[in-house]
Amino acid sequence: MAFDLAVKRVYEAPEKTDGQRVLVDRIWPRGVAKKDAALTIWLKEIAPSDELRKWFEHDPERWAEFQKRYRVELERNKEAVAQLRGLLREGKVTLLYGAHDEAHNNAVALMGYLREKG
């Protein structure tokens, strides 16, 4: 299944081209007012577990192992994944995250998982 999916820091300004804006962090990002985030939904259930998030600490050396462990969590989290897939069937979805690292974060890992699984 082809779908329109993007990843963006929640601190960037919302744009009309974002489609549905889905925050995929377990913790609300510091300094962002809920009204400014312009979210469609905060899907914190799809975020990595606290244990995995704390283990990873956005360490690029742990990136490959983080992705493997997060995929295991996603495989067990069928309800949240199904909810996100439902949004993707409706049109473009932008996954929002709060991390500083734009290459090594759960939204990027989630996008990779969704593209691989179709």
UniProtKB/TrEMBL annotation:
Domain of life: Bacteria
A Pfam short name: DUF488-N3i
InterPro entries, alphabetized: YeaO-like (IPR052552)
UniProt-listed PANTHER family: CYTOPLASMIC PROTEIN, CYTOPLASMIC PROTEIN-RELATED
Listed name of the protein: DUF488 domain-containing protein
